[in-house]
Amino acid sequence: MVQFNEEYYLENNPEALASDKTAFEHYVTEGWESGAQANAEGEVMSGDDIVTEAVALSGEALISLISEMDADDMRALDADSAALDVPALMTTSFDVFKNMDASETSKLVEDTPESLAGMEVDDFQFLESGGTFDVGQTMANLDESTTATVLKGLGGEALEYVDAEEAFDMGVELTEMSDKNLATIVGGIKVDGMTILDGMSGFDMGVELAGMDDQYQAEMFGGMEADSMAFLDDMNDWDMGAEMADMGDQHIATMFGGMKSSTLTEIDTLYDGKVGSRMSGMDDQYQAQMFGNMETTSMGIVDNLSGFDMGAELAGMDDQYMATMMGGMGTDSMTFMDDLDGWDMGATMSNMDSQNLSTVMGGADFGFMNNLGGFDMGSKLADMDDTYLSKAMTGWSESSLDGMIGLDDFDMAGRLGGMDSTLRGGVIGGWGTASLEVMDKASTAFNLSDVVFTDMDQFTNMDAGYMVGLLGGMDLDSIKSAASKMSGEDLQFLDSAASFDLGATMGAVDDGLFANLMGGWGSDGLSYMNSMDNFDMGAKVSGLDDQYMATMFGSMDTGAMSFMDGMDDFDMGGRLGSMDDQYMASMIGNFDKDDLGFFDGMDDFDLASELGEMDDQYLGTMLGQMNADEFTFFDNMDGFDLGGELVNMDDQHMASMMSNFDQGDLIFFDGMDDFDLGGELASMDDQHFSTVLGQMDNAEFRFFDDMEGFDLGGKLANMDGQHMASMMGNFDKDDLGFFDDMDDFDLASELGEMDDQYLGTMLGQMNADEFIFFDDMEGFDLGGELGS
Asked: What's the whole-model pTM score?
């Protein structure tokens, strides 16, 4: 905190000596905004520094300081201080500002007109004494909502004062006001204020209330005091009872749900004890709405109303509405309901389904639910799926952790450990380290490191040093996985640990780990790394060999690639242009069409030329890792002839590539104008064709069997036994079933004629499911083959 030095300030600001103000008053009102130094260290105080120094003054000195400040001084201090809230103080402590010049205080009132709501007549007179403020004119210029807020907060004398102002016709304003805002006023003022309104010229309160929409009438009554309710009931030109009798259940629920106990008692007296029977006739939805918003003391009044059995009503309530009602209820109200005659809360909760119970428990106190008689919380939680379980546990405090861990029939830590991170975060996000460690010890399914590093943003309250320690205790693969999810903010958080230097660590790790870490970060993470003073990212990346460079880029998204390409001290295009085909292929094999689009758009790297010059082996490996979206990109790319490359590819690499294809990939290749897939397959030798089929399943077999220009049955019938055996050794019973059902290929005959050497090799790769298939297959005698 910056401290004010009076002696230093006076020595360096001689104009302060000639002022009637104290040195500190001069600094706050004249020196601070001009950047004057507060002490010999050359420091300038912040708004919070000034507020701290001011509140330490004696009462007389503080009043003197305030009296010297004008509106601009207050505004500037408010803007620069988190501790000071001038608009809030204007509303709650207006007398403080009456120490200022009235004309300056009135400017602050114009900034915060809502502050008028708490004022008395002498406050209005003070403001007008400055000669620049007119209460009536100010009220006339307010929007309707603010007008309602102000009038609601005024007492009778203040309302009378405002009504007497020439520039503001309150009667006309109230008559033209919307139901919503009029309800706000009438529902908030006291009886003395109602008396003023009822006798006001130009405003017929009874007529206006009679014409008010039920929704706003209900909201108005709901917050009203008992004496105000009695006043309205005594009005001659409005029948309050008739208005309530005609009100629908929805609005009755709103009204009674917000009423204080004294008002409920008053209204039941006014209407001869008929409130209970009115409540009894409500449907479940509105009863639930009413009780869900009701104070506990009001529930006590309702339970004793004539004609209403609260326990019986709750016992018959639908679970859906019961859950909605109890989901936001406090412990006092829950306890009251649990003690009601005629209703067993524990039994109701026990019979409630997971969806509704999770709504109840998500807003309830853990201790109450755990101690509820006749309710086994552990078994009910254990039966919930993760979505409902997360909802049920959201809001539970870690202060109840011992009770949660100790629940019978429910492994809390284990369930949370296996839960989706987003759902889990709603329960334990923000919990302290000690609580997380307890759960880590309670279940092997709750791995603290996995939980924390799956979504670090949920645990920003954790000590950075502790989080670094968690990382240090993980194996290398887990560290890579954790780091890949980190944002720039996460890296900065780790780097803030006193015992950890991220820059030095990244400079020291081996190239393999470095490439894996860099490949997992987005542009924000890379930007943070590149901004570090003690780590030269450009030099480190430039020194990677092709293998690790390919690993790094193969895992990046286009945002990260763009960042790397824009670095001043790293030549991305140059490094790619000189990369070995083997690593280029492994890198590009991990790309999607967006990544390919980025590379193809680079100014200093020619992707088409690199692909055109690539050896068949590596081109085949690369294409085998891709799908139809990427094939489409290549087929449309300027400067690269995909069809030509495929036509000239040797069978070995063609087979290796196609063995990784699914049906969608084959459909693309079969649809190419400049590549004949059927012809390539027909001319492929047995060895390589068996390699293709041996890695495929029914969907691909069916595609080949239906493909025009290719005879799968004929190709199989002419295959030699050796390659037939090596191919079929990879088949499961479903694959065998497809081949056995083919019209133009006799699997049983092929097997029956197969040399023992190859049959034995084939069977040696299979298991019992396939043996059963062969044993049951018509036309093939497995036992006979084995016997001979």
From this structure: 0.62
